[in-house]
Amino acid sequence: MLHIPVIRWGKPYESLETQPLHHFLTGEPIAVVSQANGGLVSRDMRSAWQARARLREFNCGELLEKVAVAAHLYENGDLPLGNERQSADDFVFQQSATTGLPQHMCRANIAKNAFVLRNMREILDALTRGLDLDIFSNGFGMESRGVVVSYQAQSPVLGAVLPSNSPGVHTLWLPVIPLQLGLVLKPGSAEPWTAYRIYAAFVEAGIPAEAVCLYPGGHDVGSAVLNGCRRSMIFGSQQTVEQYASNRGVQVHGPGFSKILIGDDCVDRWEEYLDLMVESVFINGGRSCINASGIWASRHTEQIATAIAERLGPIEALPPDHPEAGLAAFTIPGTAPAIKQMIDNDLKETGVTDLTAKFGNRLVEHSRCAFLRPMVVHCDSPDHAIAQKEFMFPFVSVVKCPQAQMINKIGPTLVGTALTDDADWISQLGDATNIDRLNVGPIPTNRLNWLQPHEGNLIDFLFRSRAYQTTRQLVAAK
Amino acid sequence: MSTTTSLLEQKVAAAKTQLDQHTVEIVQWHFDERTGAPFWLEKKRELDFDPLTDIRCFADLKKFPSFEDEWLRGGPVERWRPRAYADRPTYVFETGGTTGIPKSRVVIDDFRIDYELFSETLPDQYFPRNANWLMLGPSGPRRLRLAVEHLCQFRGGICFCIDLDPRWVIKLIKKGWMEHLEAYKKHCIDQAITILTAGHDIKCMFATPKLIEALCLELEERGTSLSQLGVTGIFSGGTEFTPQWTRYCIEELFGGPSEVSGIYMTPTYGNTLMGLACSKPVTAADKYKISYYAPQPRAVVEVVRFDDSQTLVEYGETGRVRLTTLTKEFFVPGFLERDEGERELPFETYPWDGVSGVRPFHELASSTTVGVY
Fold first, then answer.
1. What is the pLDDT of residue B365?
2. Do B244 and A39 touch (CB under 8 A)?
3. Euclidean distance between CA atoms A181 and B97, whole angstroms
4. ipTM
């Protein structure tokens, strides 16, 4: 049996507490995972500075080269994992088996992470606005225009409490190693795979193992990671977002509530955007925060909802190894029925219509898991509760709302795709602080340009721009 | 081997005989109009059997309906005090109570008796007679402070106490005020370190796992350790006392087993209703397995089926923990705890059933806040 140990600054540690992982459909045992305890994390964090010191033995350029090698290994290599080795095919099978994601989506996520690793130099160049990475390494340096700048690392490591349900989020912490900061990760209970495989690829590529900790475990481990690292990120629910909202050391990634906003100047041509809308709602099983959960327009909303429902409504739950499987399973008992119940309650409001009802029951229950087939709901006003909801499957509310009210009514929006050429409205959308990523034009919400920051610039989070006055000779020497 | 087995069998049989006799004695006491508590005398009228004639052994306690902990909420608290003790100074101890009315239990001497019995299990090498103690845990309405202080005094020492309010801690967790939680923990640990470094020659202490951890980490931060401060014996308790935590504590916080670090730690399991169950010695060779044994015949721990609380699971199997308290001050027949675990075999020291792997009952776990102090 595959045993995945805790990793403490590169050293494997087999815990006396283990968590079994089973195949979501068959119940077949996949692995046992050692469970850390919170105190162990707190104690290890005392030597977090060593991670940065070890990484600083290499310059950023050298680390970037190693990361590029790791990209290839992660994508194709046979890598050590606990007491076994893991091929890319093993990885896809294992990740799908424990998360419920179809296998082709797991492969797509490998490609996405590998792309980011492979193009890390360009991504960091974009995130740093072209600064010489040695400035981050040394803490100060000379900008190309002849000005001394200083960026001080706010923590020797980045902590991250990772989710189980969306293997796509890992791109966010990948840039940390070439910035010479260590990684302290608590993998999701059902998805240890990505963190461990990327770690193995890093080590195989020559990145010091002592720079990384991997702590599978319970809630106390998550709390210890957040408490022990001066900079950390967490993925969770709206409640999690609210809990850490005032903690500047924690970057919170919650629901996206991403939306497509159709301007009055484009809405009569809505059929041209149907593919874009369907992709934004459906891709990656509707699980990502960048999937659209709302499509807002001032008119034709019934026709838009009906057309999307015609495309998504008939989609069936298929086995995870089926090449056309588009839905991910809910592997925690009771989750899917509870979500369906919440939606059913919201559907009772007058003015809310389920356009997918005629395509059969949405809840598909198996003995060990359940699926929710896509749902398209029409809201005749933005004031219905369901207009502001997001769920972990392809679900979208098509909301009728005057353009003039949209910005105020949409609420927090991680990705907002605005289909409009109206210059005034584009300007207002640009000023709207409730929209994080703004796409102007026919860009699906899920298509991210990796050269743009996501939910805040990681550089701004990890480093602080500050004054640093010294002699020019010293700067030149650097 | 056969001689050992035979000796153990004899001990098991003797313990069972003692438990049966004790059960009858206690039931006679609580259901006698002259000595019993008003609650049980009133309850007797609802029963379809006569406890005075129909309870002849421990197994007969199954005739009682399940004990409902709701009965312990609210007053008048005097209904729980046996008439025989009406003129005795009486304590009331509470459990829970973060929201709503807490469960309460009256006590006259039980906490002293329980902890004097527990004292016999402590090795003098690590818990020296006449040593001073530090009690780092909840006081207020809880039994623990008075009990630990009595344990210390019974062994000839003087006990220093640091208070901690678990109800406030649970509120902080539920509200998500984690900064306040950390600040409160630090407040407690700072006080503890002040006492430990004030020249009082403290050698023994009680602390919960969370506080032991926080204390050791803070001492390490300050360049010292419990061992360097002279602490040799620690008694602790709680469902977060897992084998992994114990290993981490012994190997990393203490710096090795007692022979190496000089610190001996003994886990316990208990509550206000039952008293204190002791642990079989915990060793690395046994993968830090923690098995608890109740202080029979005053209290009995059983592991019963989840779907049938009257039936024991087989040895090694998992079930819910059921407690029975049999003292002259308090009678609780078959109370289903909020914990589960595995049924353990008797052994020489404790020739009756034990329970290992104690953890929150899985059906209640998500709604239970554990390890709060």
1. 54
2. no
3. 45
4. 0.82
Q: Which residue has the tokens 């907002």?
A: A416
pLDDT digits 0-9 by tens, A217-240: 998 999 899 999 999 999 988 888
Q: Is B241 on the interface with A (CB under 8 A)?
A: no
Segment A107-130 mean pLDDT: 93
Q: Name which of A376, A365, A357, A425 is nearest A274 in CA terms.
A: A376
Task: For residue B224, give both structure tokens.
Answer: 């010292």
B172 touches chain A (CB under 8 A): no
User: Considering only alpha carbons, which residue of chain B is nearest residue A43?
Assistant: B217
Q: Which of A164, A210, A155, A204 is nearest to A186 (CA)?
A: A164
* Number of residues that make up chain B: 373
Q: Where does the pLDDT of residue B22 fall: very low under 50, low under 70, confident under 90, or very high at 90 and above?
A: very high
Q: Quick one: tokens of B96?
A: 């829970």
Enclosing H/E stretch for B338: strand B331-344
The secondary structure of residue B138, as a DSSP letter, is E
Average pLDDT over residues B171-180: 84
Question: Given this model, what pLDDT does residue B280 score?
Answer: 87
| A40: chain B residues, CB-CB within 8 Å | 248, 252
- CA A396/CA A279 separation, integer angstroms: 12
d(CA A387, CA A415): 16
Closest CA to A40 of A15, A5, A65, A69: A15
Distance separating alpha carbons of residues A225 and A184, to the nearest angstrom? 7
Residue B254 DSSP symbol: I
Q: Is B249 helix (H, G, I), strand (E, B) or coil?
A: helix
Residue among A37, A46, A242 minimizing CB distance to B248? A37
Task: State yes or no: pLDDT of A280 exceeds 80.
Answer: yes
Please name the residue of chain B whose CA is at the shortest distance from the CA of residue A223: B178
Q: Show which of residues 282-301 on chain B sit within 8 Å of chain A, judged by CB atoms.
A: 287-288
Phi/psi region, residue B27 (left: phi>0; alpha: psi -120 to 50; beta: rest), is alpha
| β-pair type (B318-326, B308-312) | unpaired
Q: What is the pTM of this model?
A: 0.88
Q: Using the beta-carbon criterion (under 8 Å), do A17 and B371 form an inter-chain contact?
A: no
CB pair distance less than 8 Å for A16 and B242: yes
Which of B217, B243, B371 is nearest residue A42 as measured by Cβ atoms?
Answer: B217
Report the alpha-carbon distance of residue A274 to residue A469 in Å, rounded: 56
* pLDDT at B290 > cutoff 70: yes
Return the biggest CA–CA distance within chain B: 66
Residue of A nearest to B371 (CA): A220
Predicted local confidence at residue A164, as pLDDT: 85
CB distance from B247 to chain A under 8 Å? yes
Distance in angstroms (rounded) separating the CA atoms of residues A436 and A447: 14
Candidates A193, A236, A258; CA nearest to A388 is A258
**Residue that wins the pLDDT comparison between B70 and A205:** A205
Output the CA angle A36-A164-A66, nearest 5 degrees. Answer: 75
Alpha helix (H) residue ranges in chain B? 2-30, 38-44, 51-54, 110-119, 144-154, 166-175, 178-196, 209-221, 226-229, 243-248, 258-261
**Partner-chain contact B178 A223, CB within 8 Å:** yes
State the nearest Cα–Cα gap between B372 and chain A, in angstroms: 11
What the block records as the tokens of A445 is: 């919400």
Give the residue from B122, B371, B137 showing the smallest Cα distance to B241: B371
Which amino acid type is present at position A309? Answer: A
Angle between helices B178-196 and A219-228 (to 10 degrees): 80
* Cα-to-chain-centroid distance, residue A363: 26
Q: How many other CB atoms sit within 10 Å of the CB of residue B41?
A: 17
